[in-house]
């Protein structure tokens, strides 16, 4: 078995093309994807920096004064009128919108400049701004009527963009959508409270709209961390196809037949494939993580606990890759063809990488694809890596690792059943 292990490692080290695929290609993709998409993952908003033109047609103060004047003319009871007047000053949508756009959470990515309509359109045409946000005339008055009195259709903001496929434009549109959705929700809550006998009070706590709410204690993952993990769990799968491909060469050169004549148990030969693939995979993962740590500063280098956890996850994944190499080897030997290895390396790896979240987070996928991806060895390993980076809790890592380990056991059992023996299949 140790002779088989040494042979596989030496053969791979002599193949510079395969080494380039296993090491150089993921390096290149990590750098390209990390820099190109660094603004699309949490923890990094500078890449989405955008300039927005604000065209103000509304006179907010005049709208509030006109609203209070209408309350007096409508003979609203004094106490209710006082509460509504105080509320109008607090929940004026124009002020709330501008406070959201100038909030600390958005200041790193959003630069709002107030321009007249003609200057704004010229700036958009010259691509000096990403979008134009227009606050229409009587926006405050119409909005207050709808919010506090339930009268009228309300008012709408006008957003103008030059490129509807622009990521920056879509992000800004999402910000406005979240603002209006939150404002409409609070209005509905206030109306429901009033219908039950409550009243809008000036002393009611103000609702902060448009803020960033953290719903978990997890640390954010930046783009270099994410794509280092994504490319690592993807390209480690190529180790299995590479080792199985070398086994096919051994079959063509009759090396495999000589092994069968020695009456060696298939387990010995396959064990060599598992160990060599696992060792090569572990070294590949180590080199990739070390590269990202030194060159891209993706991971902390001075935490022994962190690296022990990463090593444990990598070891389980490496064993699973070794088991996959054994299965591909058995299939190659049984059918006397390397077509299975070619299909696996040429297409199946890419499909597994997509389902496992190597290209985009699985949270962006439909539910059934997420469930399927969680059971792929690369997808489960990706989940384990991310959980460890964010939480440092080994109990959260055990579930995905158990799926990887279980997959390895099934693959090894399948390889033993399919492996051809001397004198027959």
TrEMBL record:
<feature type="transmembrane region" description="Helical">
    <location>
        <begin position="340"/>
        <end position="360"/>
    </location>
</feature>
<keyword id="KW-1133">Transmembrane helix</keyword>
<feature type="domain" description="ABC-2 type transporter transmembrane">
    <location>
        <begin position="21"/>
        <end position="419"/>
    </location>
</feature>
<dbReference type="InterPro" id="IPR013525">
    <property type="entry name" value="ABC2_TM"/>
</dbReference>
<feature type="transmembrane region" description="Helical">
    <location>
        <begin position="266"/>
        <end position="294"/>
    </location>
</feature>
<keyword id="KW-0812">Transmembrane</keyword>
<feature type="transmembrane region" description="Helical">
    <location>
        <begin position="306"/>
        <end position="328"/>
    </location>
</feature>
<dbReference type="GO" id="GO:0016020">
    <property type="term" value="C:membrane"/>
</dbReference>
<dbReference type="Pfam" id="PF12698">
    <property type="entry name" value="ABC2_membrane_3"/>
</dbReference>
<feature type="transmembrane region" description="Helical">
    <location>
        <begin position="21"/>
        <end position="41"/>
    </location>
</feature>
<protein>
    <submittedName>
        <fullName>ABC transporter permease</fullName>
    </submittedName>
</protein>
<feature type="transmembrane region" description="Helical">
    <location>
        <begin position="224"/>
        <end position="245"/>
    </location>
</feature>
<dbReference type="InterPro" id="IPR052902">
    <property type="entry name" value="ABC-2_transporter"/>
</dbReference>
<dbReference type="GO" id="GO:0140359">
    <property type="term" value="F:ABC-type transporter activity"/>
</dbReference>
<keyword id="KW-0472">Membrane</keyword>
<feature type="transmembrane region" description="Helical">
    <location>
        <begin position="401"/>
        <end position="419"/>
    </location>
</feature>
